[in-house]
TrEMBL record:
It comes from the Bacteria. GO terms for biological process: phosphorelay signal transduction system; regulation of DNA-templated transcription. InterPro entries: CheY-like_superfamily, OmpR/PhoB-type_DNA-bd, Sig_transdc_resp-reg_C-effctor, WH-like_DNA-bd_sf. The keyword Acyltransferase does not apply. It comes from Stenotrophomonas humi. Keywords: DNA-binding. Residues 136-243 form the OmpR/PhoB-type domain. One of its GO terms (molecular function) is DNA binding. Residues 136-243 bind DNA. This is OmpR/PhoB-type domain-containing protein. Gene3D superfamilies: 3.40.50.2300, Winged helix-like DNA-binding domain superfamily/Winged helix DNA-binding domain (1.10.10.10). The keyword DNA-binding applies. Signal peptide: none annotated.
Length: 243
């Protein structure tokens, strides 16, 4: 049987490598799990998770149940059809019935809505040992001397690698936004084109949501990579990626 890692920062650094974890919500755990060696993709909702799983498999899904308004049981049961997929739910501790619903439906574990990161990593490590087959290969962070001078989208656009070598997992909306800008660097992408990439109901989309998305993305990039994302707002037009 595989031995648990020693409880030191060095031993824990790659405790979850190579494990692919798809997360719905709870972006605050993305970076900590990456530090444990996991490959992490964050998504905005269950529909986005289903679309991604249809294209790229993963080892574990981590779902913030606050984003599942209805049908938690059916969601878990649907995911449980994949024998090689682990299912972990983040649940409000004040709703024990929600915990019971998830476990009865087949979830492997239910943790607090804002879990202790070390406890979460330990739970995922334990689950990993019970999963059949071999976890997919993790995306390796650039080591010293291997950093790039360019910004890059990787893993089908789900990861953003900074010149520092740090990698940021993107949400579905961030991926759609950056994919357009990276496809035409140093060109202004109009708001109408950006909105069309972000929603299938552009007539009801509030354009200010793009500004919010860009603001949050810039802050996340700066926090994770210590680099400034080279995106410029072009007044009255849209946004431009300057590489």
């Amino acid at each position: 049987m595989e031995n648990a890692p020693a409880a030191t920062s060095d031993a824990l650094a790659l405790a979850l490598a190579p494990l692919r974890i798809w997360i719905v919500g709870s972006l605050d755990v993305v970076l900590p799990l990456q530090r444990y060696g996991a490959q992490v993709h964050a998504m905005d909702n269950i529909a986005a998770l289903y679309r991604e799983l249809a294209i790229v498999p993963c080892d574990v899904v981590l779902i913030d149940t606050a984003l599942v308004d209805e049908g938690l049981s059916s969601t878990v049961e649907h995911l449980r059809r994949r024998d090689d997929l682990g299912v972990v739910l983040l649940v409000d501790a004040a709703t024990p019935q929600r915990v019971a619903e998830g476990l009865w439906a087949g979830a492997d574990a239910c943790l607090a809505h804002r879990p202790d990161v070390e406890l979460l990593a330990a739970g995922l490590y334990s689950l990993r040992r019970r999963l059949p087959g071999e976890p997919a290969q993790v995306i390796e962070a650039a080591s010293a001397g291997e950093t790039s001078t360019a910004w890059e989208l990787e893993s089908g656009g789900w990861n953003l690698r900074a010149p520092s070598g740090q990698v940021l997992a993107l949400t579905e909306a961030e991926r759609a936004f950056l994919s357009l800008l990276f496809a035409s660097p140093d060109e202004t992408i109009g708001r109408a084109q950006l909105i069309a990439a972000l929603t299938d109901q552009p007539w009801s989309f509030d354009p200010h949501r793009i500004e919010v998305l860009v603001h949050r993305l810039r802050n996340r990039v700066r926090s994770v990579t210590r680099c400034t994302l080279p995106i410029r707002a072009v007044r009255g037009s849209g946004y431009r990626l300057t590489l």
